[in-house]
Amino acid sequence: MELPFAESYKIKMVEPLRRTTLEERERFIREAGYNLFNLKSETVFIDLLTDSGTGAMSDRQWGAMMTGDESYAGASSFYHLKDAIRDLLGFEHFLPTHQGRAAENVLFSVLINEGDLVPGNSHFDTTKGHIEFRKAVAVD
């Protein structure tokens, strides 16, 4: 008998979610004007809108949150990151961002010019927005 795939980690934190009925979900979506960004998070049972890492964090991630240096400048956490980037990628300089979409916006500011055609496999809405802000064309 072949067993189904099982994740190779233990979940360290859970949070209860309210399961909604089909009728409630249809009403919530209608009230949001069919715009998923207008849905309230407490009405969403499974969030497939983002790829930004909404799953449970590992014990090491929680530990790093508790022991991280949150100083505004000169934080030891920054120097750990800087050393890791230099060791892995060989870069002496980098620009940390809080999430991928912000990094994408910084990157596009130097890579995309007015009139460029930027191909993609169904651009994410913010990706398309970053491209079009630069008067380029997002091509799916």
Your description of this structure?
With 140 residues, the protein is mostly helical. It folds into two domains: 11-66, no CATH class; 74-139, no CATH class. 39% of the residues lie in helices and 4% in strands. It has five helices and two strands; from the N terminus they run ααααβαβ. The chain has a two-stranded parallel ribbon with strand order 1-2. β1, α5 and β2 form a beta-alpha-beta unit. α4 runs parallel beside α5. The radius of gyration is 20 Å and the shape is extended. The mean pLDDT is 86.
Outline of the structure:
This protein has 140 residues and is mainly alpha-helical. It is built from five helices and two strands. It has two domains: 11-66, no CATH class; 74-139, no CATH class.
Would you identify the regions where 5 or more consecutive residues have pLDDT less than 50? none
Inertia-based shape: extended
Termini separation (Å)?
42 Å
Give helix and strand order, one letter per element, not per position.
HHHHEHE
Mean pLDDT equals 86
Rg (CA only): 20 Å
Structural class: mainly alpha
User: Helical proportion?
Assistant: 25-40%
How many β-strand runs?
Answer: 2
- The strand line-up of the biggest sheet is 1-2
Number of helices: 5
How many domain modules? 2
Largest sheet, strands/sense/barrel: 2 strands, parallel
**Beta-strand content estimate:** under 5%
